[in-house]
Design a protein that fits this description.
Blueprint: H1 2-10, H2 17-21, H3 32-44, H4 50-58, H5 73-82, H6 108-121, H7 124-134, H8 158-185, E1 189-191, H9 213-223, E2 229-231
GO molecular function, one term: ligand-gated monoatomic ion channel activity
Subcellular location: Membrane
Family: Belongs to the glutamate-gated ion channel (TC 1.A.10.1) family.
Length: 237
């Protein structure tokens, strides 16, 4: 009784959001989104047969506005492969295995189980599936629509490669400009030390000292020959 009262309140669209928020059974025992779906299904009208459901789907205005049919996955997959005007949306849900009911304690249960296992081992079920699904004479070769769930295609990530190539191009241009700047605009100059102005030193009266033989020989070797030095601009901070 309480569940029926709750369902009537929850399906009452005349309630405002404030009044609906005051309901203590907002999410019990079923989430509100499912009750909304059930209300929309009742307003659209439940089809009495599979043919009527297919007709309503085909009479829809567009793929995003109209009638959607929820039914057995086997029937819907068969309708899809035999009719190019229909398509399956999303994945299968609420899976339940097929079963054959027998009387409790009946020996038919073990016989059925044995027969099904034998069909699986002989791959008879796979052969039947191949016959009625992949090699079905009623099967139609339909153009597959672009499925966004297949993954990211090259068209979706093409902009990333464009940005990378532009960045590489700008880096090459910057490198060439820096090479030209430091080579031709701020190149280093090499001058002869003999042409450099000699600093003036104040003469100091010091007591002459005589170098030793080893020091005199090393000093003579250091002063013999022409030498070069490099002069670079001083960095400014």
């Amino acid at each position: 009784m309480s569940r029926r009262i709750w369902k009537d309140m929850s399906l009452n669209d005349s309630l405002s959001e404030v009044e609906r928020a005051k309901l203590a059974v907002w999410d019990y025992p079923v989430s509100d989104k499912y009750t909304k779906m059930w209300q929309a299904m009742k307003e659209a009208g439940l089809p009495n047969s599979l043919e009527e459901a297919v007709k309503k789907v085909k009479d829809s205005k567009s793929s995003s506005e109209g009638f959607a049919f929820l039914g057995d996955a086997t029937d819907i997959r068969y309708l899809e492969i035999t009719n190019c005007d229909l398509t399956i949306v999303g994945e299968e849900f609420s899976r339940k295995p097929y079963a054959i009911a027998v009387q409790q304690g009946s020996p038919l249960r073990d016989q059925f189980n044995t027969a099904i296992l034998q069909l699986l081992n002989r791959r008879e079920l796979e052969r039947l599936k191949e016959k009625w699904w992949n090699k079905n004479p009623e099967r139609q070769d339909c153009d597959k629509a672009d499925d966004q769930s297949d993954g990211i295609s090259i068209q979706n990530i093409g902009g990333v490669f464009i940005v990378i190539f532009v960045g590489i191009g700008l880096a090459c241009v910057t490198l060439a400009f820096e090479y030209w700047w430091y080579k031709y605009r701020k190149g280093s100059r090499i001058i002869d030390v003999r042409e450099a102005p000699q600093p003036h030193h104040h003469q100091h009266h010091q007591k002459p000292t005589f170098p030793k033989d080893g020091d005199f020989k090393r000093q003579k070797e250091e002063t013999v020959g022409k030498k070069m030095a490099s002069l670079y601009p001083r960095p400014r901070f």
